[in-house]
Write a structure and sequence with these properties.
Helix content: 55-70%
Order of helices and strands: HHHHHHHHHHHEEEEE
Structural class: mainly alpha
Strand order of the largest sheet: 3-4-5
Shape: flat
Distance between the termini: 55 Å
Largest sheet: 3 strands, antiparallel
Strand content: 5-15%
Radius of gyration: 30 Å
Number of strands: 5
Length: about 400
């Protein structure tokens, strides 16, 4: 066990012991709330230590390094805030009249933003999801700043208006929700890709966010159908990209296509129903109601299909060879002149029988784009990033012999 894990484990066990002792004393002897506060601080310390152990364990893995760092930072913020609320917060509020919940709002904001931020930090490790991961991190950071500002705006402006905080928090929520949907449209983004329709999803997310934020602050009360249409476009595009990101094997690709068809049908039927409700004649009331129900049915099929698609893709996923490059120091070969079989070291050497001078070189098959090791890979594309690679049997590696 690493030293920091042992230290955190001792802190956690000690805190649990203090919590147990404080709880017992509170029932037996305490007249005030000091024992309860000690017990609450001990429990908070134990929980924070346990989460930090998990976060630092994640940081030991290269792919989870930044996700673990985000979790560790959020845990420290939550822990310090909890200690403040358990300890001096009540005294300061009673003494100086600090009734506003800036600390509470900050803790809630961090709790909401940490999970998408962790997902974004994990996504940036993969070339396929890097742009989407950057977008998720950006959206999470912006929303967090807005929520924190909404929690502490009274400190800067002393407005004290509850509706101001409500609007600020609603704005952050809209940016977070629609930003995550727009980020999904950027999955599998790479220069030269032909899925230009993905930008419809990004545009739909931006339009929806702008419309909702405008309505939050201006209270225009306009017709909702434009925002419904833009939201449906953003969700459908994101759904299609998530389905395609599963990378189904050719034999099961029909499942992904059927899932995409169901998702697109759900969005199209919903849009038609909304437009008919807004602009259609009243005698078609039953028709647009049926379209709305059909949209829901197609949505259920699409959701189940998406789950099945990812399960099948994981089951039939090609084997991954991500171990560190093998240290090859020698190679067994036949001399091209005398045909003697022998094992020679890499580099400059010579045949043990005919003394033919040889230069031996080997290279592991790797993707030119992302460096993924291609042992056993087939299909003409890298299993990690989808870049075109040489088929097995072609010159993906090299073994060069030169005689003199």
């Amino acid at each position: 066990m690493r030293p920091w894990r042992a230290i955190l484990l001792r802190i956690m066990l000690t805190a649990l012991a203090v919590a147990a002792g404080g709880g017992a004393l509170a029932f037996l002897f305490a007249n005030g709330d000091w024992a309860g506060r000690i017990m609450a601080m001990a429990i908070a310390t134990a929980i924070a230590s346990a989460v930090l152990i998990g976060a630092m364990t994640m940081m030991d893995r290269p792919k989870l390094l930044w996700a673990g760092a985000v979790l560790a930072g959020a845990t420290l913020i939550e822990y310090l805030g909890a200690l403040y609320l358990i300890g001096p917060a009540r005294f300061l509020r009673q003494t100086y009249g600090l009734e506003q919940g800036g600390v509470e709002g900050t803790l809630i904001a961090v709790a909401f933003a940490v999970w998408p931020a962790m997902i974004g930090a994990m996504m940036i490790r993969s070339p396929r999801f890097r742009l989407a991961g950057v977008s998720v991190l950006t959206v999470s950071g912006i929303s967090l700043l807005i929520w924190v500002f909404g929690s502490w705006d009274w400190f800067f402006y002393s407005s004290g208006y509850w509706w101001w905080n409500e609007r600020v928090w609603s704005t952050g929520g809209v940016i977070m929700g629609m930003g995550l949907i727009g980020s999904l449209a950027l999955l599998d983004f790479a220069p030269g890709t032909r899925r230009h329709w993905r930008w419809l999803g990004v545009l739909g997310s931006i339009i929806t966010s702008a419309g909702w934020i405008w309505d939050i602050w201006m209270k225009t009360g306009g017709d909702p159908w434009p925002l419904i249409l833009s939201t449906s476009v953003a969700i459908v595009v994101a759904f299609v990209m998530v389905t395609l990101a599963a990378q189904m094997p050719p034999a099961h690709r029909w499942l992904a296509l059927a899932t995409i068809a169901a998702g697109v049908a759900s969005g199209v039927l919903l849009d038609i129903a909304v437009l008919m409700d807004e602009f259609g004649p009243q005698n078609l009331l039953e028709t647009w109601e049926f379209l709305g129900r059909s949209s829901g049915a197609a949505g259920i099929l699409a959701g189940c299909g998406l789950l099945a698609t990812w399960i099948v893709a994981r089951i039939f996923k090609p084997p991954r060879f991500e171990a560190l490059p093998v240290s090859i120091k020698a190679i067994t070969l036949y001399c091209p002149r005398c045909q003697k079989k022998q094992t020679l070291a890499l580099g400059e050497s010579q045949c043990s029988q005919c003394l033919l001078h040889l230069a031996v070189k080997v290279a592991e098959p790797q993707c030119d784009k992302c460096g993924y090791l291609l042992y056993g890979a087939s299909g003409g594309r890298c299993p990690e990033c989808g870049h075109a690679v040489a088929e097995p049997g072609e010159a993906v590696g090299s073994a060069v012999l030169s005689g003199a």
